[in-house]
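TICKET: design request
STATUS: open
ATTACHED STRUCTURE:
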């Protein structure tokens, strides 16, 4: 009712709409969004849009300080702001004001930030040491990574001279620290700040996973193994959960229902993709389910088996190595 009311109001061409033409686009998008999302985002009791600086004042009483954006790409101005904007921003000494100005420059409407109690700034040497010890794992298959990124200025093409060597160095999908990466890439003329920027962007778009310490991963393994065992058992009953958990990254990893069935087959000692296919097909038959491809249900058994074979071969080639390194398989 509220959206319909607003739609009718805007149809009368109020002067507010002439001054704020983007509002009509926002309402149009809202009409196609999920009702649960809309109720959560716009219709709860405490929904109150505010500027970044208002949040700063609110959290000061709890002794919380702004650390950085949770959108790692926001920290890379070169792909978000024009040269004049970057220069103007660099001249603002106050960090909090700088964030507010960034929001206006980027027309940023939603923020995701980290706040820390008892914030202490690192020295440049401490920061470099912390970055060097950060462990990384390539989470996407090398050939599937496009050197493009969506940013404030539109779609940007990433430098092949910088990004390709970084991805190549991680392509074995073995855990490496930033320090190890830096040493291996020095001969290719990649500067340290270029490496850090590349890692930030590749992490942000999901091609690189941040890895916990060996101690933290070891401590997490019993719990993650038990949870994954339970989630995989649910896959036999047509579960809609499409993530497992990694003790290595300390977070969720996307694993489709078919891939979960392939992992179950692996856990039962079936090593070949064709064995995974037969196992998965038996489970799907017990569930009385057929594969849906591009909105169409595949009715014939051979059609389903052909699709499962394609999935299994892609899983063997592109996904198993990462899931093993991530401690999921």
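STATUS: resolved
RESOLUTION: sequence designed for all positions
ATTACHED SEQUENCE:
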């Amino acid at each position: 009712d509220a959206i319909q009311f607003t739609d009718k109001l805007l149809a009368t061409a109020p002067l507010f709409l002439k001054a704020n033409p983007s509002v009509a686009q926002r309402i149009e998008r809202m009409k196609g969004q999920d009702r649960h999302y809309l109720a959560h985002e716009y219709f709860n009791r405490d929904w109150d849009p505010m500027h970044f600086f208002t949040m700063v004042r609110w959290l000061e009483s709890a002794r919380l300080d702004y650390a950085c954006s949770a959108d790692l790409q926001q920290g890379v101005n070169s792909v978000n702001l024009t040269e004049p904007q970057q220069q103007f921003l660099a001249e603002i000494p106050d960090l909090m004001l700088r964030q507010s100005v960034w929001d206006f420059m980027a027309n940023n409407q939603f923020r995701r930030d980290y706040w820390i109690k008892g914030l202490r700034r690192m020295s440049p040497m401490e920061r470099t040491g912390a970055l060097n010890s950060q462990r990384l794992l390539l989470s996407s298959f090398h050939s599937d990574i496009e050197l493009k990124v969506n940013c404030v200025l539109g779609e940007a093409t990433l430098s092949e001279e910088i990004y390709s060597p970084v991805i190549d160095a991680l392509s074995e999908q073995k855990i490496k620290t930033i320090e190890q990466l830096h040493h291996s890439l020095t001969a290719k003329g990649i500067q340290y700040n270029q490496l850090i920027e590349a890692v930030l962007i590749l992490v942000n778009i999901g091609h690189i996973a941040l890895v916990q310490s060996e101690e933290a991963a070891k401590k997490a393994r019993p719990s993650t193994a038990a949870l994954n065992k339970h989630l995989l058992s649910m896959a036999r009953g047509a579960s809609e959960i499409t993530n497992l958990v990694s003790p290595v990254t300390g977070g969720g990893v996307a694993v489709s229902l078919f891939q979960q069935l392939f992992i179950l087959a692996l856990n039962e000692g079936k090593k070949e993709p064709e064995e995974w296919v037969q196992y998965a097909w038996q489970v799907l038959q017990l569930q009385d389910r057929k594969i849906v491809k591009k909105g169409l249900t595949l009715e014939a058994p051979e059609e389903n088996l052909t699709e499962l074979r394609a999935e299994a071969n892609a899983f063997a080639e592109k996904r198993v190595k990462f899931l093993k390194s991530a401690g999921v398989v």
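CLOSING REMARK: The chain has a mean pLDDT of 92. Residues 214-235 form the longest helix (22 residues).
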